[in-house]
């Protein structure tokens, strides 16, 4: 089977949301209805690209191909940037607005009033951003840069809004956002910034020192440190699973709240209308299923109440086997030990010798208690933090002793 095409962030997110929608968009190339907020963001990004591009001072790249691009951990030494002369002034405000008007698109807006509100917002954002550039000019090394890489065997690509040189000689990945609200938590959790970090690290020699979501409405740069390899690994795993699903042509629909805005409901099997001739037969099956499910829930409640009542009676009488007319109910117990991790850590930290990492789960504590390399006094102290829990349950046997 042919290998999957390189994944972008938007492609990855689309497949996670609904594999069938991914197929409609990326395999069948079906168009979607334009939406005003997407059109607005695209136009603003295009104007910002032209506004910042004159300020770009390129820096050293990694070599094309070869071992230097095969692994995220393979660094070249940073190449300090030479002084590039005085900062260049942004284009005049009149030219900026003229460019904005030339690039403006009316696609996707629900009304002329909505379009005008967005258009006015764009003018305000761009003029304020231009003034900000004059006061705090960045040191961009690339804008709207298309980058591709092979990330530990996974082909990925993307367009990075801006890459800046930091004062320390490293790189800052900048992604513009026109959304209403944004927080530092959004930057810290952004898979998009994580992927852009990978792409920049695979294509530039200088290290990534910062990741930034630039909130255009407030002109606030929301910065976060670069991700370490352990932080990036879950994203690599998820993107790998998406690539595997695409390669295997696993395009099942995933219904959810996103269905309300999907352009493909009319052809999606989740919303396919019922054939008229099959309606009565299938409706009766649904009604029967619904009734049986209600009976199941009722029986589960009744079963739990009966078992609890039987347990109370057996406790009072000291019984473990209770005969009935057709079977014998046998009371069984399941014993487990619970260890509070907050009590285990101080014991290990105070133990003599090399520090031992504290277990992160109850199963880890149980393994520690069976580990002969842990001193017996330490194991005894850890064991004393535990509490025994007993869960009783019932099993049925035939009257002759065989299980039912």
Classify the fold: give the CATH topology of the largest domain.
Answer: Lambda Exonuclease, Chain A
Anisotropy-based shape: extended
Number of DSSP helical runs: 12
Oligomer: single chain
Which residues sit in consecutive blocks of at least 5 with pLDDT less than 50?
Answer: 65-86
Main-sheet strand order equals 1-2-3-4-5
Strand content: 15-25%
CATH first level of the largest domain: Alpha Beta
Main sheet properties = 5 strands, mixed
Average pLDDT over all residues: 88
Total separate domains: 2
Structural class: alpha+beta
CATH architectural designation of the largest domain: Alpha-Beta Complex
Q: Count the strands?
A: 8
Radius of gyration: 31 Å
First and last CA, distance: 49 Å
Percentage of residues in helical conformation: 40-55%
What is the helix/strand order?
HHHHHEEEHHEEHHEEHHHE
Characterise the protein shown here.
With 404 residues, the chain is α+β, with helices and mostly antiparallel strands. The protein has two domains: 9-258, Lambda Exonuclease, Chain A (Alpha-Beta Complex); 304-398, no CATH class. Helices cover 43% and strands 18% of the residues. It has helices at residues 9-17, 19-27, 36-52, 93-103, 112-135, 184-189, 191-203, 229-247, 279-317, 341-350, 362-369, 376-384, and strands at residues 140-151, 154-165, 171-177, 208-215, 220-224, 321-323, 327-338, 387-398. A five-stranded mixed beta sheet has the order 1-2-3-4-5, with helices on both faces. The longest helix is centred in the last third of the chain and has 39 residues, at 279-317. Mean pLDDT is 88; it is low at 65-86.
């Amino acid at each position: 089977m042919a290998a999957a095409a390189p994944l972008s962030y938007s492609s990855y997110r689309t497949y996670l949301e609904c594999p069938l929608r991914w197929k409609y968009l990326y395999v069948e190339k079906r168009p979607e209805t334009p939406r005003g907020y997407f059109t607005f963001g695209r136009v603003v990004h295009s104007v910002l690209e032209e506004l910042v591009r004159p300020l770009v001072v390129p820096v050293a790249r990694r070599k094309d191909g070869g071992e230097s691009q095969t692994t995220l951990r393979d660094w070249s030494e940073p190449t300090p940037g030479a002084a590039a002369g005085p900062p260049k002034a942004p284009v005049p405000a009149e030219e900026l607005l003229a460019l904005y008007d030339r690039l403006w698109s009316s696609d996707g807006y629900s009304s002329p009033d909505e379009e005008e509100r967005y258009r006015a917002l764009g003018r305000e954002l761009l003029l304020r951003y231009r003034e900000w550039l004059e006061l705090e000019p960045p040191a961009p090394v690339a804008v709207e840069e298309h980058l591709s890489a092979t990330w530990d065997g996974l082909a990925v690509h993307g367009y990075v809004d801006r890459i800046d040189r930091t004062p320390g000689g490293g790189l800052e990945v900048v992604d513009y956002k026109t959304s209403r609200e944004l927080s530092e938590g959004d930057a810290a959790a952004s898979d998009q910034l994580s992927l852009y970090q990978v792409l920049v690290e695979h294509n530039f020699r200088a290290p990534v020192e910062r990741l930034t979501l630039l909130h255009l409405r407030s002109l606030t740069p929301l910065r976060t440190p670069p991700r370490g390899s352990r932080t990036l690994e879950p994203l690599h795993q998820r993107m790998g699973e998406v690539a595997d699903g695409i390669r295997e042509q696993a395009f099942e629909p995933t219904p959810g709240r996103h269905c309300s805005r999907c352009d493909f409901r009319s052809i999606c099997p989740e919303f396919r209308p019922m054939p008229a001739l099959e309606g009565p037969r299938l409706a009766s099956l649904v009604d029967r299923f619904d009734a049986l499910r209600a009976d199941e829930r009722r029986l589960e409640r009744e079963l739990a109440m009966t078992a609890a009542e039987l347990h109370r009676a057996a406790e009072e009488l000291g019984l473990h086997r209770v005969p009935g007319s057709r079977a014998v109910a046998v009371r069984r117990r399941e014993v487990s030990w619970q260890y509070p991790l907050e009590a285990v850590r101080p014991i290990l930290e105070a133990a003599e010798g090399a520090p031992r990492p504290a277990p992160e789960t109850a199963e880890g504590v149980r393994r520690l208690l069976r580990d002969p390399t842990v001193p017996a006094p330490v194991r005894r102290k850890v064991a004393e933090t535990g509490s025994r829990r007993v869960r009783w349950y019932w099993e049925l046997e035939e009257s002759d002793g065989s299980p039912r």
